[in-house]
Design a protein that fits this description.
Strand content: 5-15%
Largest sheet: 7 strands, parallel
Helix content: 25-40%
Structural class: alpha/beta
Number of helices: 10
Order of helices and strands: HEHEHHEHEHEHEHEHEEH
Low-confidence stretches: none
Length: 270
């Protein structure tokens, strides 16, 4: 979605707007300082599609592991040789989840259904709170090192923005894949491209990018043949869109009736 920058917020305020409701969970494209200054409440819709996002992340993990993009192109060329298509069973392998909130927890459940060992890292959760969904590690590095694929489910805040790059990819197993259905700004894209090209990172599945559409400076992402990409569609299913729109409509009605908004977006305090 387009940036709701300070000039946009100011223009909305001049037009008498008192409420900005994001039809999504994230609000990092809204100038929260400007909204607060103008007395505009920003609302969001958290938790409307954890299963949809987790299912898409798993689909990317499967596609990356089994090289489905390569396989598809081979069939289009009527090439039925299996060279370059060898993957591995997920059964009894290790899934690594960075960020075990609602989406991460849904991902854990899916991985368990594949018979995988699930490990994770989340500095805001303890093992007793997450139960047997996954084995929490003390450091993120342990997850990067031990997992057969790593799926990140983090927000973009000062401590996480551009926090994943060559260092993390160099910790991974030589056959491991990296999956991102969270936010593109978590990643140092230039280092991601470099690691895909030089073999530091084996495979990647990406649904999000720092700039969407992808800018010319990042078009090198299209060059490696060991990455599969989708157009920020993980949260878009019939059920999730209906849940989101219903939540938005209910919140608008509530505010118009003088009630407090259900979920106010607040600037992170990290």
């Amino acid at each position: 979605s387009s940036d709701v920058s300070a000039p946009v917020v100011n223009a909305l305020s001049d037009a008498g707007v008192k409420l900005i409701l994001m039809r999504c969970a994230g609000f990092n494209n809204v100038d929260m300082d400007a909204a607060k200054k103008c007395g505009i409440t920003v609302m969001r819709v958290p938790g409307y599609s954890p299963e949809a996002v987790a299912e898409h992340a798993m689909a990317l993990a499967l596609a990356a592991n089994r090289r489905l993009y390569k396989a598809y192109n081979k069939v289009r060329e009527n090439d039925f040789s299996l060279s370059g298509l060898m993957g591995f069973n997920f059964y009894q392998k290790t899934a690594g989840i960075i960020g075990t909130g609602k989406i991460g927890a849904a991902m854990c459940r899916i991985c368990q259904g594949f018979g995988m060992k699930v490990i994770g890292y989340d500095p805001y959760l303890t093992q007793d709170k997450i139960g047997d969904l996954c084995e929490l590690k003390e450091t993120a590095k342990e997850v990067w090192e031990q997992a057969d694929f790593v799926s990140v489910h983090l927000p973009v805040v000062p401590s996480t923005e551009h926090s994943i790059g060559r260092e993390q990819f160099s910790w991974m197993k030589p056959t491991a894949s990296f999956i991102n259905c969270a936010r593109g700004a978590l990643i140092k894209e230039n280092e991601l491209v470099e690691c895909l090209k030089d073999g530091t990172l084996f495979q990647a599945g990406l649904d999000v990018f720092e700039h969407e559409p992808i800018q010319e400076s990042s078009r090198e992402l299209f060059d490696p043949d060991n990455v599969i990409m989708t157009p920020h569609m993980a949260a878009t299913t019939e059920q999730s869109v209906l849940n989101c729109c219903t939540s938005v409509a209910n919140d608008i009605v509530a505010v118009c009736n003088g009630q407090e908004p259900k979920v106010k977006a607040q600037k992170p305090k990290f």
